[in-house]
Amino acid sequence: MIESRESQSYLCFTQATKKKHTGVAPIPLCPLIQEARTLALLLAGNPIMADIPVTLVLLLWMGFVLLFASRWLYNFVLKRGWDPKRGTYLGRKFVHIFGAGVVAVVLPFEFHEPYFPFAFAMLLALSTFTLHKTGRVLHWFQDPANYSETYFALSWGAAVLLTWFLDETFLLAVVPTLFMAWGDGVTGVVRNLMYKKRTKAWEGSVAMLLVCIPVGALMGVAGVIAGALSTAVERLEGIDDNISIPVVSLCILIPAWALKLNIPIF
Question: Per the domain annotation, does 66 fall within a domain?
């Protein structure tokens, strides 16, 4: 049982995110979504179908962030004299934090199964990849020179699907995703504001570490170590950090989970 090996803080999290087989329903985003989920479950008799309402809400939210909010931010900073490349970079980090980050936080509280989140991520990956290939990038957050947002979506989807078979609370997927979404997102914002360009300066790494340590603490000492190593690999050139961060962090978190080495911090 989880209760015999995890910290009190971890228990609080997992107790709030128990899946259908525990008999405890996820915490609803709002009564309307809960009612829609109940109706879907009654009609289909399948908990996967009960994930449709929240999936649709998050698709709308992600569409708003990608097509409107990030574009507004891009235009806002350009009017204040920013270089377009800086505006695009800031727009991408905005999508990281307020798009993918929000979806990751909702995941353990609202979803029963990994299939719709996985499909959600693959849809985003395919959409952004197609925009690159057709030369129709959304310039306010997409850089024609790299596929960072596509790699992010692929990593996120793979983490959600593969780790669910080990941990049905989704925590193994959420922690690495937040390292990318919030940790790397804050890093980019800090460096952009300080240096006015894309750089791997140490100030951004400090900001990322300050985010990743408390996020990683959800999984105890192993999570903190994963957060620190994710911060270190983010500085490496030659490999996209949307790949290196989840791979490195999961190489720490999965063995720790399997061997019951999630030593509590609190």
Answer: yes
Q: Provide DSSP, 25-63.
A: PPPPSSHHHHHHHHHHHHHH--TTGGGHHHHHHHHHHHH
Is 202 within a domain? yes
Tens of pLDDT along 170-220?
Answer: 999 999 999 999 999 999 899 988 888 777 888 889 999 999 999 999 999
Q: Are 81 and 146 in contact (CB under 8 A)?
A: no
Q: What's the DSSP call for residue 114?
A: S
- The SS3 assignment for 171 reads helix
The structural domain count of the chain equals: 1
Is pLDDT at 157 greater than 90 in this prediction? yes
Tell me which residue range forms the domain holding 123: 7-258
Q: How large a percentage of the chain has pLDDT more than 90? A: 62
For residue 22, the 8-state DSSP code is G
